[in-house]
Amino acid sequence: MSSIPPNLQHILDGLEGEHCEFKEWKTKDDFDGLTKYACALANDGGGRIVLGVADQRPRKIVGTQVWPQFEVTRKSLNQRIHLTTHWEEFQTAEGRVLVITVPRHAYGLPAAWDGRAWMRDNDSLVPLSEPRRKSIWEEIGRDYSSEACPGLTIGDLNPAALDAFRRAWVDSLRARREESGQRDAERIQGLSHEQVLRDTELLLADGTVVHAALILFGSRQAVRRHLAQAELVYEFRNTSASGPADLRIEFQEGFFAWHDLLWQQVNEPSRNPRQSFQAGLFVRQLPSFAERPVREAILNAVCHRDYLLGNSIFIRHAPTTLTIESPGGLLPQVTVETLLDRQAPRNRRLAEVFQRCGMVERSGQGMNLIFEDAITSAKQLPTPDASTYQFKLTLHGVVQDPTFLAYLERVGQEKMRLYDTAHLLVLDSVRRDVALPDALKPLADRLVTDGLLERIGRGRGARLILSRAFSQAIGESATYTRRKGLDQEEGKLLLLKHLEHKGEAGAPLTELAQVLPSKSKRQVQHLLNRLADDGKALAPRRGPSAAWKLTRFGILNPSGKLNTKPVGV
């Protein structure tokens, strides 16, 4: 009888094609190749990559040793292609098989890595064809950033902004540490501005320049003449009171001419104060607004705004909040509730340029990174707000729970990298002692298994708290004990003490439940029943509102015995 699980056998019996890719990869650790295959499958509607299986029929399991701890690899792949892949590991007598399920591309956006989108052509991987790219783009409608800007010429662009983009593109390629990347970096470094624009499809074959080039590299005169609303206005106020801003700067050039200058304004010490907290023997300082989430939020605003609307992007900065207001509401397939799960750029040509110069995360899953930073900094979650013609995102700067920062320090950065945004949201909910949304409840099991959380009680009365080991390590054992609640004997003693105080009047279950707030009513009822079994308490005879009493205040029942069993409770 075969030792191969039925669901794996079903995959092995299937045909290799555009929706399935079989690779032996016994020891071959080709993460870049895996990324390309994942992009190709996503752009063809999704499918599977099966590692550890011969690609010739009849397919035999040869086993694979690559990525034994695949969680980190899975998360890195998800960040590269901006999709959520699912990994399954099968241990068979013939060897280990790794099955990677890749979803379809994001709505209206080809799956790409490092600015390159891929597709399958028979048994080969090739760059995504223009017809296929066009069909994906048409899922979302018009891309204003890729349309020609009438009257705009290369002479209207800022050479310094073009140079800044080219340096970022070269640095991104060199960071890949691949021979092909180094060759591309050398080639791009020597390109003229015109050829850079052609390579990025910002200069069309007929010599016209698209709107994306104006938004990214336009001179101040060109932006004001052709697209005045493509500006960003930064305002800082020391208080939340209305009135003139203490500082107002209007950035009216292309993005690459001002994005670093904008961060310098936000990060000025008097506007971005540091907050200190103790981590073991060391004192760490956290800025109110970290660079990464601020840049992510700005990139999202530039990439996703509606340039057909006449409003500008506004950044309203105060000592404890930073709000980015961007013209244009969310696209139809995205809501405030699904921001972390769905990405659909309104301006795809802009997104592709950001991908080329190493800002790929910022144009794809930037919102996830913004939320992750808030959680791991123990700050209030970002507040998104959307209307038909505007999207607003508020970042909060105050560290709310320094002990939670120490808790995360104890967990360690290496372990935290194994968890995605949804797992961090579970931790944040437990930290704030709020109920988990239904969608996040299944994720808590893994955090309990890994020892980060503990589950108290059973059934509907079950609760989650930070684990004892980490609470003790950060000096919060008392908090842990308080949250975990009293043990059974201590609970019974407190209930008896309250009944002693109530005397002959006694107390109903609803009142006694308040004595032990860490326990559910069902758990309190259980403790009361144990007291009745011990002959120390008398159960009420009718209804949940009837009073429990100490034994000495009891009344004999018709049999001549004290009533110690609840009736109708």
Q: How would you sum up this structure, described in words?
A:
- By secondary structure, the chain is an alpha+beta fold.
- It has 4 domains: 6-137, 2-Layer Sandwich (Methyltransferase, Cobalt-precorrin-4 Transmethylase, Domain 2); 140-396, 2-Layer Sandwich (Heat Shock Protein 90), CATH 3.30.565.60; 402-484, Arc Repressor Mutant, subunit A (Orthogonal Bundle), CATH 1.10.10; 506-553, no CATH class.
- Helix content is 38%, strand content 16%.
- It contains 23 helices and 19 strands.
- The strands form 6 sheets. A 6-stranded mixed sheet has the order 9-8-12-13-15-14, covered by helices on one side.
- The longest helix is centred in the N-terminal third of the chain and has 17 residues, at 159-175.
- It is globular, with a radius of gyration of 30 Å.
- Residues 556-562 have low confidence and may be disordered.
